[in-house]
Amino acid sequence: MVASNVQIALRIRALSAEELLSVPARLQKNVLSTSPFAPNQVIVQGERKQVFSFDNVFAPEVSQKEIYDRVVMNMIDKVIEGYNVTILSYGHASSGKSHTLGISDGVSYTRESKGIIPRAMSTLISYINSAQYKKRKYSMRISFVEINDEKIIDLLSEDNDKIKPQILIRDESNGQILWSGLQEIKVNSLEEAINILSRGMLNRQINTSRLNDRSSHRHTIFSVTLSQQKFIPVNGDSVNSSNLSPSMLSSKQFSGSKEINKQYEGDWVTVTSKLHFVDLSWKDMDKDIPKSIILPISHVISNLGKKTEEVSETPRSISNAQNCPPILKEYLGGNAKVLVISCVSPAAFQVKETINTLEFATQARNNKDTTVIHQEIGWYNVEHLQDLVLKLRAEVKTLQENGTNSLNTPVNEKQRRRSSILANILVNSNILQNEKDSTNLDDKISLASLDLPKILEGETLNQGLGPIIEEYEKSILSLENQLSHVRAALAYSENALHLQEDKLKDTEETNKQNMHTINDLKNHIAKLNERKETTEIEEIESRDDMVAELGKKIENLVDEITYLKETQTSDSTNSTNSFTEQVISKEVILESKVTITGKEEESEVSNAELLVAIQKLHKRLAKFEEEAMQNQQLIDTLEATLIENEDSLIAANKKLSILQNREDGLLKQIKALNSRVEEANDETENAKSDLFSAKQTMERTLVEERKSKENLKFQLKEARNEVENKKAEILLVKQEEKKIKEKAEMSRITLENELERLLSKKKKFGCF
């Protein structure tokens, strides 16, 4: 028994070409770094600086071959030595797990970029064909399965198989996992192994596209079962086992000599080792690790790494976690050397997933696996059993020929039972050797060799099949519970859909009211526009016309006043000047006449006429002065009227500016109302869109719930059919058990008769 820590290797992948094109440059920043002074450490520059240590750290530039040579090659050596080995690839979506194992986008064993599985198969087959192990007999079988929501899919089964056996897994009391119904294909060359791997990957792609699978519970397991037979002498060193082969005992002609018997005294031991490649895969829907799938596995590995006093459960009970896939129990917490290759991306946009993977790997590093070499003394090998029967017959013949004194040697019940088992196996193997399928022959002989001891010891098959029936009944109850939960969820979804429909109706009514309000606002705006056009604009235009007319009148008055001023001034000036000149001239004439005549005192009539003329001239002067005064008053009146008109014009301009401001305010109100109408329309459209999206979402949810309900009904029906089939199989097995018992009894009687006959002969020879 060997105990060692689980080996953890970290692989950092490079960014793909698609990521370099689609992801922004700031999110392509490298958050992982290594140091040449600590090559097994990695530093994460996230929200805070974190340092993780592992057994091996591989940078993006490290090749597939270097990874295989450094961490995988020694695990293949352990498989040859007889240990079980599990190589587990772990990480978030698109982190390079499948590429590392070599099961992504086709398989090729000629390219430099081939993964771990093709290289491991090449190493195993080269070991088998090497001169060092040529004396051993090897048998290699391959299985390829996919676990999808705890449903096991055999990727190597053919689609044209009419009847596919149900794949079942049972936990044995010794902690081993037993399969039933799984197809294991025997391979002899690297080409056959790669073809089987390619076939399984093709079937996986076909199943995924056919079922339109969107499940996140998908794990792929590629298993290699290696059986090797080697000869172990009884005394430990009397025979060189390298000079023997499993078929030598059957090919030798036993002469009965003691030397020959001693030469081949020993057992052929069958050592069976298993190599598992596990790809833990899940879909990254919300860029968050699906905790319902990965956490149970993390719980198994992390608890196995704790001290015994820190864990209340045993490793076996831990590995039986409810959510952990049953097939992974043996690989994670059983008898296997484990290598975990954690794959991460260095980009900043996946730093959360990267840290989760690194924390898981750190927990897993403290685990210890306990492994033993599983070897059997040839009970599963038909050729070995045939050789053993021949050896027993040779011993009997030797006793007959030599006549040894062993008459009183009793044949105990254990030897008789063993002889009966061997004889029965020999008879059954001779019958089954005529069948075409050698793989089925080995399986049937193995099952017979397992069942015969139980039959002879009085164990019934019902004890082994009872747990299976109970498991199926539990599965049916679980499916019925799931169906009830789905029905409740469906009812809840329907109620939610009804509530959404009611909300949709209320929203539609609200939208109708909003539309009425919007129409009223539009009508009000139209009326305001009409009022603006019919009242305000007309008033403004009339006032503009009035102001224009007043301006024209004022201009005319100003022109008229100016003209009158000029005319009156010129006329009055001219008339006054002329009159004054006339008066002066007449006065001068009169004075001259008075002066000339001097002393002439002519008639008083002429003087009187002159005085009258002077008076008339004074009157006319006074009249002109009065007219000038009237004209001045008219000018003053016109100037006052002009001032009043100017004041009226200023007031009209002020009122016009007020009206213009009111018009601007109304226009702003109209714009605000229009914007409110547009916002209301946008909100209505958004509400309609949201309601339509919610309705579509609820309809899709309802359809998915109905599909889930139908699937659960179908699964329940299948489970019931499987139970019925198992019951029929139980009846067939019971009938077969009865036949085997009868054959065993007949073989036992025959062998007892043969032994009695041989003993009688032995006694007879002993008497002489």
What would you say about this model in short?
The chain is an alpha+beta fold and 768 residues long. The chain is 62% helix and 14% strand. The protein has helices at residues 17-22, 64-81, 97-101, 116-128, 190-211, 248-251, 258-263, 291-304, 315-319, 326-333, 351-365, 382-402, 413-432, 438-456, 462-597, 604-767, and strands at residues 2-5, 7-12, 32-35, 38-45, 49-53, 56-58, 85-91, 137-148, 151-154, 168-171, 177-180, 185-187, 218-233, 266-281, 337-344, 368-371, 375-376.
Topology:
Blueprint: E1 2-5, E2 7-12, H1 17-22, E3 32-35, E4 38-45, E5 49-53, E6 56-58, H2 64-81, E7 85-91, H3 97-101, H4 116-128, E8 137-148, E9 151-154, E10 168-171, E11 177-180, E12 185-187, H5 190-211, E13 218-233, H6 248-251, H7 258-263, E14 266-281, H8 291-304, H9 315-319, H10 326-333, E15 337-344, H11 351-365, E16 368-371, E17 375-376, H12 382-402, H13 413-432, H14 438-456, H15 462-597, H16 604-767
Parallel strand pairs: 2-6, 2-15, 7-14, 7-15
Antiparallel strand pairs: 1-16, 3-4, 4-5, 8-9, 8-12, 8-13, 10-11, 13-14, 14-17
Organism: Diversispora eburnea
Pfam families: Kinesin (PF00225)
Family: Belongs to the TRAFAC class myosin-kinesin ATPase superfamily. Kinesin family.
How does this structure look, described?
The protein starts with a strand and ends with a helix. It is elongated and about 225 Å long. It has helices spanning 17-22, 64-81, 97-101, 116-128, 190-211, 248-251, 258-263, 291-304, 315-319, 326-333, 351-365, 382-402, 413-432, 438-456, 462-597, 604-767; strands spanning 2-5, 7-12, 32-35, 38-45, 49-53, 56-58, 85-91, 137-148, 151-154, 168-171, 177-180, 185-187, 218-233, 266-281, 337-344, 368-371, 375-376. The longest helix is centred in the last third of the chain and has 164 residues, at 604-767. It has 768 residues and is of the alpha+beta class. The strands form 4 sheets. Strands 2, 6, 7, 8, 9, 12, 13, 14, 15 and 17 form a 10-stranded mixed β-sheet that branches. It has a 3-stranded antiparallel β-sheet with strand order 3-4-5, covered by helices on one side. A two-stranded antiparallel sheet has the order 1-16. Belongs to the TRAFAC class myosin-kinesin ATPase superfamily. Kinesin family. Residues 469-538, 607-761 form a coiled coil. This is 7773_t:CDS:1. InterPro entries: Kinesin-like_fam, Kinesin_motor_dom, Kinesin_motor_dom_sf, P-loop_NTPase.
